[in-house]
Design brief:
Largest sheet: 2 strands, antiparallel
Order of helices and strands: HHEEHEEH
Oligomer: single chain
Shape: extended
Strand order of the largest sheet: 1-2
Pfam families: CytoC_RC
Distance between the termini: 73 Å
Function: The reaction center of purple bacteria contains a tightly bound cytochrome molecule which re-reduces the photo oxidized primary electron donor.
Number of strands: 4
Structural class: mainly alpha
Radius of gyration: 20 Å
Strand content: 5-15%
Number of helices: 4
InterPro entries: Multihaem_cyt_PRC_cyt_su-like, Multihaem_cyt_sf, Photosyn_RC_cyt_c-su
Protein name: Photosynthetic reaction center cytochrome c subunit
Keywords: Electron transport, Heme, Iron, Metal-binding, Photosynthesis, Signal, Transport
């Protein structure tokens, strides 16, 4: 019985370590500031940047390597500052487009609520946005 408690305890600790490591960005230390931010605010906090990136992950149903290039020095992980992956610049243009649309059309109060569009509006969990044909 005592061995079962020990096994359960160590299994719980192992699960906790795996969970924490799954949600950390490899290659970026806590004191290291994000680099090469061209659309997102340069003073964005680590927590807010992580929240934004996870939002992109969910909205497009992709992982980090969809937009970010791998490290070129042979190490494991992503080079988050690199522009080597062309999809990163596409993402930047989509962010600009979304901000422009929201500012022009949706930055007004409607029925007591502010409405806007997000990546999810068109992508709906897929890497390619769903397009609609308009019948004439």
């Amino acid at each position: 019985m005592r061995n079962n408690k020990k096994a359960f305890f160590f299994t719980g600790i192992l699960a906790l370590v795996i969970s924490v490591s799954a949600f950390t960005q490899p290659g970026q230390t806590k004191n290291e500031k994000p680099q090469n931010l061209k659309v997102l605010p340069k003073n964005i906090s680590d927590e807010e940047l992580t929240k934004v990136m996870r939002g992109f992950n969910a909205a497009l149903g992709v992982k980090c390597n969809y937009c970010h290039a791998p490290k070129s020095n042979g190490e494991k992980g992503m080079d988050f500052a690199s522009d080597a992956n062309p999809k990163k610049n596409i993402a930047r243009e989509m962010i600009k487009m979304t901000k422009k649309i929201n500012k022009k059309y949706f930055n007004k109060e409607h029925d007591g609520a502010f409405k806007n569009i997000t990546c999810e509006t068109c992508h709906n969990g897929h890497d390619e946005p769903k397009t609609f044909s308009v019948a004439k």
